[in-house]
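Try this one yourself first.
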């Protein structure tokens, strides 16, 4: 133990000392003594190559393909090359119902594990109802924070999944209810939070597949106030 050192502590101290003496030179790499125990011994690694190759061959280990750049779609869920259903092996069942107490994590988990557009729409409907419930049963503004966070996640996930119409359809109805005093009375303060946090319609500047232009998102009025 006396021969192991804190790489972070000594690296920072060494970098400061070097730059104080050489202000215009790049900081050299860390000393070998600081990184000695962060990598396995070279001799051991070389001796283990045959065993590692046999293990990889026996276990049919394959490289995970790199994720494609760009936004994912609900139908394009990454699958292992072996074809194994890891969720089924571990006994994990997909949940279609999300709870108000843990809505955001459950919603995100369901979208991450589902490739069925029908399930995604059902989950979105449930989340929308939960958001409205947060506001309707809010004493003053006590539930507004949870509602804003849930709306933010809802919008971000639909942008990533390239399903803007799911969010926009809900958002239009939500606005009508909110400004029509249908969610527990006067909730104009909640509407102000929606606008301040830019939680309006998903436009083409945010999603290429959106049918709403950026100008429409700013000017179209569904009740008494623009998005």
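Now uncover the answer:
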């Amino acid at each position: 133990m006396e021969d192991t050192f804190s790489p972070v502590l000594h690296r920072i101290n060494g970098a400061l000392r070097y730059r104080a003496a050489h202000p215009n030179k790049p900081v050299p790499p860390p000393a070998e003594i600081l990184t000695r125990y962060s990598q396995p011994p070279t001799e051991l690694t070389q001796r283990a190559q045959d065993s590692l190759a046999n293990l990889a061959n026996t276990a049919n280990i394959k490289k995970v393909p790199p994720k494609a750049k760009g936004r994912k779609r609900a139908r394009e869920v990454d699958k292992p090359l072996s074809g194994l259903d890891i969720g089924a092996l571990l006994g994990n069942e997909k949940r279609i119902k999300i709870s108000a107490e843990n809505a955001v994590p459950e919603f995100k988990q369901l979208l991450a594990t589902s490739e069925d557009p029908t399930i995604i729409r059902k989950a979105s409907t449930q989340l929308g109802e939960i958001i409205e419930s947060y506001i309707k049963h809010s004493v003053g503004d006590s539930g507004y924070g949870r509602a804003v966070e849930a709306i933010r996640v809802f919008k971000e996930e639909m942008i990533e999944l390239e399903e803007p119409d799911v969010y926009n359809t809900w958002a239009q109805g939500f606005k009508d209810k909110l400004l029509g005093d249908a969610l527990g009375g006067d909730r104009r303060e909640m509407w102000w939070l929606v606008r301040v946090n830019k939680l309006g319609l998903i436009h083409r500047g945010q999603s290429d597949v959106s049918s709403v232009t950026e100008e429409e998102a700013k000017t179209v009025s569904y009740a008494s106030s623009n998005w």
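Discussion: The chain has a mean pLDDT of 83. The chain has two domains: 7-58, 103-219.
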